[in-house]
Each structure stands twice: as C-alpha cells, then as structure tokens.
C-alpha cells in the first residue's frame, strides 16, 4: 500500500559505502598510462601488484605502445588522461590494442568522433567526478555512447567527488576500476551496486516498439515542464543530468495511437514495468495533449535513466531482505499542456511504460468502485492510490520491485488488501511512521478521519 511516494526510497549512491581497502594479491598485470600520472599514482597501483609505467612517446603512439607491451607478461591495461583522448581514439583504428584487456579514460576531451574502429576492441570505461564541469561530463558520456554504437564495449560512469583530483587516486576509484576489469575487490556490497550500474548501460528493456511507430513520433524542443520531470526523477542525484544537453525530446502521440487502434474509446489504461496500473479518462485529459516521451537528445532508450535503491525488508512481517532494486524512468507519460493540480499524476505511476501496456476501452475501468463509499473511493484513488498498486475487485495491479541485475520482479508485491494479516494492516493504519521506517520508505498515512472505515472495508474484502 505504500506506493504513494516510492521514488523517495533510500537511494544507494556510489559514495554510500565505506572504504575497506583493496585486495593486494593478484596475478601479474600491467598498467600503461598514456598521460601525466604522478609517481604517487603509479606507486598506488604497484602496491596492488601491478607493474605501472607512464607511456612517454616522442612520435607515433601506436608504435610506442607496442614496443612497451612487447615483453610484458600477463594482462595489460591502458589508462588515458583526458588530454590524450584523440590519441586513444586513433589507437582504436589500428591493431595496437589487441594486447590490451581494458581501457580507462579519465574524462573525454571534445572530438568529432569520426573514427571507424578496427581489430580487437577492448572494453572502455570513461569516468568523471560527479561535480566535474558539465561539458566534460557530457563529452565523456557522448564519447562512450558513440563508441558503443561502433562496436566498442564502452560505458560512462561517475566517480565520487575527490577520487580523481588529488595526487593519489581515491580508494573507491581504484575499486571501480578493478571491478570493471574483472579483478577482485574486498567490498562485496559496493561491487553489487557497480554490477547493477553497468548492467543498466544495456537495460533489460527497450522502448523501440514505441519508436517503431514512426508516423506517430514528433521531436520537440525541450521546455521547462520536461526539465522539471527529469529534475524530479534525479532529485537526489542532480549530477546525472550533466550527461545530456536536454535540447530535444521525441514524443509518441497517444491520441493518434488511440484513433488508429481503438477509435472512439474514452478510457486509457497504462500498465508499467513495475506492476502498477493507472487509468485516465481521456475526456478530461485529451485537451492537455498526452504523449509518451521515448527519447531525449541522442538517447533512444529511456530505460537508461535509472537509479538504484534497497529497502530494509520485503514486507514488515517477514525477515526477507531484498537485493538492490532499479528505479528506471523509462518511457514516460507527459502532457504538452500543463494540467491542473487536481489532475496531476505521480511520476511513479506514469513512468516505465511500454507499448504492450497501453490499452483503451469504452467502459470506465474504475466503474466498479462506485459501489464503495465516497471515503473509500477517495482513499484508494486520490489519497493513498491503493488501486494502482494492489488488486482490488477485478483490478489487477500488483506493484513490485525490479531486481537491479535482471530487471525481473523480486518481491515486495502489492497484495490484495484483504490478504494482509490483521495486525499488519492495523500497524499500517495506526503506527504508520514506524512501519514506514522499518521497511525503509516514507510514510503514506490514510487520513485520520478515514482510518476506521477503511479498516472495516479491508476486513470485508
């Protein structure tokens, strides 16, 4: 039932785990650094069992790197400073990287990215600190995106602030790099979060089915209302927004889709990837021009807009502890004209949409709740929004959490209200603050004047 403000779950961030140090034993491996590392930075990696040397080249970087690698034993890793971005990209057009197992680029400098990679394409991680200049972040994400489209397994990731700027690289930055290379680290929990982050660079979902209806798509200049949407979604991690310019968005026209597939219908049902369902009366909403945002700038997959969280428990009355969950924005319902406050739809219920989750009907999907009292109707729709997350009557919503690694449901299901143990329901209604705290959510209290009537109604279900 606590689905009113799920987006304010305790959020896991890269800076949210304490440092416990690195693993010092590993097989022989080598780091070659194209740039200007300090001796302290090189020594850090030597203490972890690597050979670590600066690549100093007077002429051809490719030949210079090959000469340096010629006598190396074990795996080779290439570190590249931002100022050497062009040189790195040129290496991807040669056979030079055949002996490289992985590449770290410390921020990408602006480039036209006109290269066509050849030969072996080692995986690339482009990194920037969270408070880095917005243009550096944008160029870094853009470089990873374009290289990925050209066959290089490239991804962008933020580093916690302060991890890259000092003479010594921070321990979390080292852990991130080690994990990206598939090398051991001692922080299991932190590594699980990194696995989730990397997994959603290639999300388990795609919005291509929506984008496949080319004649229903239109590009718009991004305005303040869309900017507000993204700022709200990333409100605890605003640095994420630096990755895009937010100039344009691509929209799927819901009304044209209705007129093509179910002409004359009045009601719209939206089922999202989290098991939630929302119902709209288009007679009230059509004038506000409903669309589904299916792309922003050069980003075609809205599921890449994601953050991660974990609740303390699956349910208050069990000891089941969930794994990390993913909260992805996904394709999101937007109104091109601002709707009145009384028609606002929570972002949680209008996001993570899919083509197969869109249905239209002539009959009101919520008509059956008219049999309930005004108080109950108000609680389960407007106040606590139970009907959008729980099965009620013939309504089949069943909200759940998405496993961050697989994108599959992992529990915490919204059960039929009558199936909750009586003591659990009473605790929810009369001790909401402590219940919310126990599970790791913010409170979603039923209005005090409605509590007793609501409890009797639930018992009758």
Which terms summarize this structure?
461 residues, alpha/beta, six-stranded parallel β-sheet, 14 helices, 17 strands, elongated
Describe the structure.
With 461 residues, this protein is α/β, with parallel strands linked by helices. It is 27% helix and 18% strand. It is built from 14 helices and 17 strands. The protein has helices at 39-46, 61-69, 85-91, 134-149, 171-180, 188-199, 208-211, 224-233, 254-261, 282-285, 374-383, 422-430, 432-439, 451-459, and strands spanning 11-12, 29-34, 50-54, 75-81, 102-106, 123-129, 154-159, 217-221, 248-253, 267-271, 277-281, 290-296, 306-309, 325-328, 332-335, 358-361, 402-403. Strands 3-2-4-5-6-7 form a 6-stranded parallel beta sheet, with helices on both faces. Strands 1-13-14-17 form a 4-stranded antiparallel beta sheet, covered by helices on one side. The two termini are 15 Å apart.
Largest sheet, strands/sense/barrel: 6 strands, parallel
- The level of helicity is 25-40%
Q: How large, in whole angstroms, is the Cα Rg? A: 26 Å
Strand content: 15-25%
What's the pLDDT, averaged over the residues? 91
- Which structural class do you get from the secondary structure elements? alpha/beta
What's the total number of strands? Answer: 17
Distance between the termini: 15 Å
SSE inventory with pairings:
Blueprint: E1 11-12, E2 29-34, H1 39-46, E3 50-54, H2 61-69, E4 75-81, H3 85-91, E5 102-106, E6 123-129, H4 134-149, E7 154-159, H5 171-180, H6 188-199, H7 208-211, E8 217-221, H8 224-233, E9 248-253, H9 254-261, E10 267-271, E11 277-281, H10 282-285, E12 290-296, E13 306-309, E14 325-328, E15 332-335, E16 358-361, H11 374-383, E17 402-403, H12 422-430, H13 432-439, H14 451-459
Parallel strand pairs: 2-3, 2-4, 4-5, 5-6, 6-7
Antiparallel strand pairs: 1-13, 8-9, 9-12, 10-11, 10-16, 12-15, 13-14, 14-17
């Amino acid at each position: 039932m606590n689905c009113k403000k799920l987006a304010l779950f305790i959020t896991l961030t890269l800076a949210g785990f304490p440092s416990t140090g690195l693993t010092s034993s590993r097989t022989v491996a080598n780091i070659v650094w194209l740039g200007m590392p300090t001796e302290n930075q090189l020594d850090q990696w030597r203490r972890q069992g690597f050979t670590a040397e600066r690549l100093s080249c007077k002429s051809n970087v490719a030949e210079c790197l090959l000469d340096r690698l010629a006598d190396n034993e074990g795996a080779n890793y290439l570190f590249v400073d931002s100022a050497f971005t062009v040189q790195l990209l040129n290496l991807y057009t040669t056979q030079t990287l055949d002996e490289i197992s992985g590449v770290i680029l410390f921020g990408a400098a602006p480039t036209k990215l006109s290269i066509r990679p050849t030969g072996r394409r080692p995986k690339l991680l482009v990194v920037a600190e969270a408070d880095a200049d917005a243009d550096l972040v944008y160029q870094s994400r853009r470089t990873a995106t374009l290289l990925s489209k050209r066959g290089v397994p490239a991804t962008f990731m933020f580093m916690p602030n302060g991890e890259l700027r000092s003479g010594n690289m921070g321990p979390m930055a080292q852990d991130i790099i080690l994990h990206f290379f598939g090398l051991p680290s001692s922080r299991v929990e932190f590594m699980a979060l990194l696995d989730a982050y990397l997994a959603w660079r290639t999300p388990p979902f795609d919005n291509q089915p929506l984008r496949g209806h080319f004649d229903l798509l239109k590009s718009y200049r991004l305005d303040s209302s869309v900017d507000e949407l993204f700022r709200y979604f990333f409100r605890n991690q605003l640095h994420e927004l630096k990755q895009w310019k937010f100039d344009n968005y691509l929209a799927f026209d819901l009304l044209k889709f209705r007129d093509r597939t179910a002409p004359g219908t009045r009601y719209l049902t939206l089922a999202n990837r989290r098991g939630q369902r929302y119902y709209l009366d288009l007679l009230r909403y059509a004038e506000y021009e409903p669309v589904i945002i299916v792309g922003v700038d050069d980003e075609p997959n809205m599921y890449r807009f994601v953050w991660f969280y974990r609740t303390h428990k699956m349910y208050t009355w069990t000891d089941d502890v969930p794994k990390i969950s993913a909260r992805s924005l996904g394709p999101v319902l937007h109104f091109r004209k601002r709707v009145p406050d009384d028609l606002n739809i929570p972002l949680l219920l209008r996001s993570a949409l899919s083509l197969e989750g869109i249905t239209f009907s002539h009959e009101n999907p919520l008509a059956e709740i008219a049999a309930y009292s005004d108080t109950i109707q108000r609680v389960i729709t407007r106040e606590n929004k139970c009907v959008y997350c729980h099965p009620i009557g013939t309504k089949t919503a069943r909200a759940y959490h998405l496993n961050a690694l697989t994108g599959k449901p992992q529990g915490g299901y919204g059960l039929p209200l009558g199936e909750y143990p009586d003591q659990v329901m009473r605790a929810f209604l009369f001790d909401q603050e402590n219940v919310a705290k126990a599970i790791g959510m913010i409170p979603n209290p039923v209005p005090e004047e409605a509590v007793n009537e609501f409890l009797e109604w639930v018992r009758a279900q």
